[in-house]
Write a structure and sequence with these properties.
The structure holds 2 protein chains of 2 kinds. Chain A contains 4 helices and 6 strands, in the order βαββαβαββα. Chain A is an alpha+beta fold. A 6-stranded antiparallel beta sheet of chain A has the order 2-3-1-4-6-5. The chains are: A alpha+beta, B alpha/beta.
Chain lengths: 128, 431
């Protein structure tokens, strides 16, 4: 288990919004490792794990985006049948509530990371 | 501090005697010189001599905005054209504009009324006024200018727009006092923030006068704390000289209205019957110290109430409450009468709400309120945004009895105009 930085960008549901965002990544030579979109009707939040989070934060702020950065937990999973089940079992036992989760596959394909946004950070740190 | 201490602190009995004398003179002047009023008085079976006390004004006919439009351009003049030195008009959103004329004495008088207001807020000749109102036919620029000049302030006639230059002027000339619309003030405040200017530290601003559009106490408090200034409420309308008809003193608890120049009535907007002090209704004003174009019982369409309680500042002239709204701004959704100010009041009282919003009327059943959340409010958490939206929905429902749609928007994305704002967008097809 490790902590990694996640970027959250507020996005109105409008055509072309995603393209605006990806352009900033492209222009600043930032590599996206994983992302997820949570939509809420007229707006959504896009979450990104990138190789240079601090640089990305600055770039988006400069470009006028509403963005924030926070730490999320990355739980290692074996890349084989039952890998996710093992992690889910563990999370259930620890009584943790996940706000939002998605998967990051590592480059070497030896394993995968479950990215978890957990509100109760202290409890999560103890359990994990 | 007073500008015309004697007039401003006149004992009530004396003030009322002066009102009666001036009202009689005014009625006679319009009856003798303005065919419109002669006909209107005759229709109501009254003559100037019918007035025995100020209260008798009730017997006289109203003047409406439609009357002003029908008599455009100069049908209500009570003197020869050669004695007029200034013309102002009020924007005519419906039909013809309303034209208002000033003689030399009228201009001088309106400047004195403004000077009274400025001194009441603590201004002296050492102050620097940046007049961020449109100069031209609109009274907000020129009429304020003449009043501030009378007091001896340094005036920067910067007018509206070009916010970067406005800020440069403030920095270079040590502006202490602003005159601007509330919507421009909100825009300016967010512009300061974006430029990294802390007005409380980096500028010499002390106060701002805000009028021309209704705004809420919550907006005032927000602006006062974000700019480190005192905000004074002002009320005026072109038909009654423009700015300076009523103004707050340093007590900031209602606006003094100069009763030696205006007779103040509050009437039920539906029946036209006078209402007792303290009750909200439509403000009706009669000019009693005007030569060029006196107006009798003008229906302002503005909703307020009279506060007759003596003010601690020593001025004996009554105060009117913050304008609740214009009788015309009101709209109806699902059969409920709603004033935009009610909505603004809710928005500005909820933590996390930014400075800008828009009310979109979709149909007779639906409206959408677009609200910017505050800068720095976003922390990536969807729940927080949903909670904010939920709180807004509940509070709005409680305040206006109708559940609107609420859309959250990023700071700085809703359109702002640099003058009077268009906060209500009416997409209803009602013809």
């Amino acid at each position: 288990m490790k902590n990694i930085k996640q970027l959250s960008i507020f996005a109105e549901n409008k055509p072309g919004k995603l393209e605006h965002i990806t352009k900033v990544f492209e222009e600043n030579k930032i590599n996206i490792l994983a992302f997820n979109i949570a939509s809420q009707g007229d707006f959504g939040i896009m979450r990104f794990i990138v190789d240079k989070p601090e640089k990305a934060l600055e770039a988006f702020k400069k470009a006028g985006f509403t963005i924030s950065m926070n730490e999320v937990f990355a739980i290692e999973m074996e890349d084989k049948p039952g890998g996710f089940h093992n992690v889910a079992q563990f999370i259930a036992k620890s009584g943790l509530n996940i706000e939002n989760a998605y998967v990051l596959i590592e480059k070497d394909r030896q394993g995968a990371l479950l990215i978890c946004d957990i509100k109760d950070t202290e409890k999560a740190k103890k359990a994990l | 501090m007073f500008w015309q201490m004697e007039q401003e602190t006149l004992k009530r009995a004396k003030l009322e005697a002066l009102q009666l004398k001036r009202l009689k003179q005014t009625l006679k002047r319009v009856y003798d010189n303005v065919p419109f009023y002669q006909k209107a008085f005759t229709r109501c079976k009254v003559k100037p001599v019918s007035l025995k006390s100020v209260k008798d004004i009730e017997k006289f006919p109203f003047t409406t905005r439609e009357d002003l439009q029908a008599n455009y351009p100069d049908g209500l003049l009570a003197c020869g054209r050669e004695d007029i030195v200034r013309l102002h008009t009020s924007s005519g959103t419906t039909g013809k504009p309303k034209a208002v004329f000033f003689t030399k004495a009228d201009l001088d008088n309106s400047a004195n009324l403004i000077a009274r207001c400025l001194v009441a807020t603590g201004c002296t000749k050492h102050d620097v006024l940046q007049n961020m109102m449109s100069y031209g036919l609109f009274t907000g620029g020129l009429v304020m200018h003449y009043g501030a000049e009378k007091l001896g302030m340094l005036i920067i006639p910067s007018a509206v727009g070009n916010t970067d230059r406005q800020i440069m002027l403030m920095q270079d000339f040590g502006t202490t006092t602003l005159h601007l619309t509330p919507s421009y003030a909100l825009y300016l405040a967010s512009h300061f923030e974006a430029k990294g200017i802390n007005p409380a530290k980096d500028l010499k601003l002390k106060r701002a006068f805000m009028g021309a559009e209704p705004y809420t106490e919550e907006t005032r408090l927000k602006l006062e704390s974000s700019m480190g200034i005192e905000v004074f409420n002002s009320y005026g309308l072109t038909e009654m000289n423009g700015p300076g008809v009523a103004f707050e003193c340093t007590e900031k608890n209602g606006m003094h209205i100069w009763e030696d120049n205006f007779i103040v009535e509050i009437v039920d907007p539906a029946t036209g019957k006078q209402l007792p002090d303290g009750e909200y209704g439509e403000l009706v004003l009669t000019t009693i110290n005007r030569e060029g174009m006196p107006i009798i019982r003008y229906r302002t369409r503005d909703i307020t109430a009279i506060d007759p309680v003596r003010c601690a500042c020593g001025r004996t002239h009554v105060r009117i409450k913050r304008i609740h709204g214009r009788a015309d701004d009101m709209f109806i959704i699902r059969g409920v009468n709603i004033y935009p100010q009610q909505i603004e009041q809710v928005l500005m009282s909820v933590n996390g709400v930014g400075k800008n919003y828009q009310i979109v009327l979709e149909s007779s059943e639906d409206m959408t309120i677009k609200v910017e959340f505050a800068k720095g409010y976003f922390d990536g958490n969807l729940d927080n945004l949903n909670t904010l939206r939920g709180t807004l929905l509940d509070r709005l429902k409680a305040a206006i009895l109708v559940r609107p749609k609420v859309e959250l928007a990023e700071p700085g994305t809703l359109p702002v105009s640099e003058g009077k704002s268009k906060r209500v967008i009416d997409n209803r097809k009602v013809y």
